[in-house]
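Recap slide: 4-hydroxy-3-methylbut-2-enyl diphosphate reductase, sequence and predicted structure.
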Amino acid sequence: MKVILAENSGFCFGVKKAIDTAFNEVEAKNEHKLYTLGPLIHNPQVVEELKQKGIDVIEDLEEVHSGNVIIRSHGVPEKIYREAEEKGIILTDSTCPFVSRIQKIVKEYYDKGYQIAIIGDPNHPEVIGINGWCNDDGVILQKTENIEKLKEDKPTCVVVQTTMSLVLYEEFIELIKHKISDLQIFNTICLATRKRQDAARKLSKEVDAMIVIGGYHSSNTQKLVTICKEEKPNDTFHIETVDEIDFEILKKYETIGITAGASTPHKVVNEVLEKIKNLL
Ligand code: SF4
C-alpha cells in the first residue's frame, strides 16, 4: 500500500495565526481571563487543548463582564467591537486578513449605497460576520434560486465566503450577470482553500481511496470531502482523529491519498500517516 499526502493540506495561514495568538496570550500570563468568541477553530481536539490551558469558549459577549476575548479567524460583525468597548472588554483580534478584506469591501460599498450580495452559507460564522459590516442587510446567496431576492435596479457588490468552491462561485456569477448590469464583483475565495481543493481533486484522481481529516463542522473540510467524493464516491473517508480509521477497510486499497482541512493540526495528520504506515 502506498500513502500519498496532498501537496496542500492542513493548517492554513489564518488558522495558524489564530492558534499562535491564543497560545501567546496564554504564555503572556496577563491578569485577564481569556475567552474565545465561538470555538477558535472547527477542531474539537484543539478547542479542548485550549480549554485545558484556561481559554473558555463563549458564544455571546453578554456572557462576560470583563476579560480578554479572542476573535477567531472567521471574524465578527462590526457591532461586536462597539459592544466590547462599551463593556470594557479587551478584544484580541485574530480575524484572518483575507476575511478582514471582505469586511472592508462590504462596508465601503454599503456606505456608497450598493446592494450587498454574499455568496455563502447564511449559518456560517464568517458569513454572519461579513453581513454584520453592512447592517445585516446583505442578500445571502446559498442556492442559485436565492438570486431572486436581489433587486435588479440597484448597483450591487458581490463577495463570496472564503471557503466556497470556485465552480459554484462561477455558476452564481454567471446568473447574477444576467440579472444585474451595475456590478462590482470580488472573488474573495481564499487561495489557501483553492490550493487545498485543487490538490485534493488532483490526488483523488490518482489513488484508490481518499482520507479527509478534519472537524465534522469544518466547512472547508466538508468541501474537500465533496470534491474527493466526486472522484471516489464510495472510497472517500472523512475522519476527525486517527482512532476513526477502519484499517480492515483500508487494507483492500493499493494507494491511499490523504488530505486535511485548513483547521486540522499537522500533529493529527502525522498521527494518521504514522498509523497507516505501521499497517504496511
Ligand atoms: S482558509 Fe483562508 S480565509 Fe480562512 S482562515 Fe485560512 S487563510 Fe484565512
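The first strand starts at residue 2 and ends at 5.
The pocket of iron/sulfur cluster is lined by residues 12-15, 73, 96, 98-99, 162, 190, 192-193, 220, 262 (CB under 6 Å).
(End of recap.)
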